[in-house]
Amino acid sequence: MSVRTTVKSIQDIMRQDSGVDGDAQRISQLCWMFFLKIIDDQDKELALLDKTYRSPIPAELQWRAWAANPEGITGEELLTFINGELFPKLKNLTQSGKGGDRRRVVRDVFEDAFNYMKSGQLMRQVVNKINAIDFNNLSERQHFGDIYEQILNDLQSAGNAGEYYTPRAVTAFMADRIDPKPGEILLDPACGTGGFLTCAIRQMRDRYVKRPEDEAKMQAGLRAVEKKQLPHMLCVTNMLLHNIENPSFVRHDNTLARPYIGYTQSDRVDVVLTNPPFGGREEDGIESNFPQQFRTKETADLFLALIVRLLKPGGRAAVVLPDGTLFGEGVKTRLKEHLMEECNLHTIVRLPNSVFKPYASIGTNLLFFEKGEPTKDIWFYEHRVPESQKAYSMTKPIRFEHLQPCIDWWGGKERKGREEGPQAWRVTANEVKSRSYNLDFKNPHAIADDHGDPEVLLTDLDAAERDAASLRDQLKAILAEALVR
Question: Which domain holds residue 298?
Answer without folding.
Answer: 160-434
